Amino acid sequence: MVKIAVLQMTSGIDPEANIAAIIAAIRQAAENDAEVLFTPEMSVLLDRDRRRGAQWINEDYEQSIIDELALMSAKWQIDLALGSMAVPFCTGKSANRSHYFRQDNQNPVTYDKIHMFDVDLANGESWRESNAYQPGQEVVTIDGTPLGRLGLTICYDLRFPDLFSALGKRRCDAIAVPAAFTRPTGAAHWHVMLRARAIEAQAFVIAAAQVGQHEDGRETYGHSLVVDPWGEVLLDMGGEGPGLGFCDIDLGRIAEVRAQVPSLANARKIPN
User: Which position among 31, 68, 75, 155 bears the catalytic label?
Assistant: First the structure.
């Protein structure tokens, strides 16, 4: 049995305050014997005013955050799956990048969000993530975590089953889906899609989420979830506010589900 911690946040426009909340959660998670802490998308800074937020997106500040969180992970002997933060990219845009810190203080493994959230919602909300962010190109998995092989995704990636099919083919034991889902899309699709992806990949899905009313004016859905390979919801942190949740993961469940319904083994290539 592996105990994990999930941090649900209402990140704001002050990265120092957000980082302080993450560090407090690292300490609390470690004191409660969790082996990995998962945080949401854009944990470090959530600001739709790109000009205001740009002051924090530079290589020096990025490295200072990485150094600080690596040190905290090592100090408290807990792995940290930082859902994502904005980092500078060579094209002049940013990358929406996840970082996985091992407690041995090595450089984190990173993943850049592949699918850009470019949508116009019925309630009038309009988002163009591709205006500021460069999409990633690589599927990323990490071997040897306390949860076994961990696949990395971010938020809108959830809507693209080919990515989760690739992670399933790589036999991931768990998949991280840090998110900042809007309220309308979250209410309609969050639970059903996370359960579907867990069932399809026959893996645990761990989705730390942003929640509530943010300083930049947006609202996010919350409901950080942990879903098992059968699609059962093991943890739902609700949509009321931030907090730290805990969940025990029985890795033996993966083999049980894959033996009962061997869909990964039975999959065939579908012709175009």
Answer: 155
